[in-house]
Write a structure and sequence with these properties.
seven-stranded antiparallel β-sheet; globular; Arc Repressor Mutant, subunit A; 2 domains; alpha+beta
Length: about 240
């Protein structure tokens, strides 16, 4: 169920929180709070973008489907960002499926409202354009990671990103789904997850993963998690 958002969210979406106060005040009456359910398709490839979503809690995956039915994750959007960015640059149809991986909440708004605010506020326009740059950097980093790093390192990267945006230590995740997201065989993900569980870094039961030791999970991840996180932090703390 959706309802109107009123006050600036505390601990909510970081991109919204970084907007100038006057911009947020103008946007606030147009923001609708909604729940995000695991597996929900927020945007389906090829459909018209009717809403932009600012994630407050949870994580969505940008998933590319191929002709043979295989799919792979090409990026993630969590509490630092927005879903539907392309609608602000004249591309009104979704390029890839956007699927909820970690459930939570979001604030949604019509693209035209954000476009009008960008025209009114140069600071807000600059922030959103810099977010677009950071998102492109994430795509580039993810592509390099998928080509160069081990399955365990990539699993750790994904778990850290999910942990950041889920804002809880436990969230639903199956080996099959993680393998699909990473574009690898399920057996490889199972071996990696088993090693992390035996090391006491995560716990995995009945399709749900719990982060037990965040520090050691970071130590076993590749450089890509830190690179993506640092770029987003620089954007939002500037």
């Amino acid at each position: 169920m959706a309802h109107k958002a009123r006050d600036r969210p505390q601990g909510g979406n970081r991109l919204l929180a970084a907007l100038p106060a006057d911009s947020y005040d103008r946007l606030s009456p147009h923001l609708e709070a909604i729940e995000l359910e695991h597996g929900q398709v927020v945007h389906a490839a090829g459909t018209v973008i009717e809403h932009i979503y600012f994630i407050e809690q949870g994580l969505v995956s940008l998933v590319k489907a191929m002709r043979d039915g295989s799919v792979v994750e090409v990026g993630t959007i969590g509490v630092e960002g927005m879903v539907g960015l392309s609608s602000l640059v004249g591309i009104d149809r979704v390029l890839v499926d956007v699927v909820v991986q970690a459930p939570g909440t979001a604030l949604r708004v019509r693209p035209g409202v954000i476009g009008e605010e960008m025209a009114l506020s140069p600071r807000s326009r600059d922030l959103i354009l810099r977010y677009a740059h950071a998102l492109l950097m994430q795509f580039i980093q993810t592509a390099a990671c998928n080509s160069l790093h081990s399955i365990e390192q990539r699993c750790c990267r994904w778990l850290l990103i999910a942990h950041d945006s889920a804002r809880t230590g436990s969230f639903p995740l199956t080996h099959e789904f993680l393998a699909m997201l990473l574009g690898v065989q399920r057996a490889g993900v199972s071996v990696a997850a088993s090693a992390l569980q035996k090391a006491g870094i995560i716990e995995y039961h009945y399709g749900r993963v719990t982060i037990v030791d965040r520090h050691r999970l970071e130590a076993r991840a590749c450089e890509c998690y830190e690179a993506i996180r640092a770029a987003l932090d620089r954007l939002l703390e500037a």
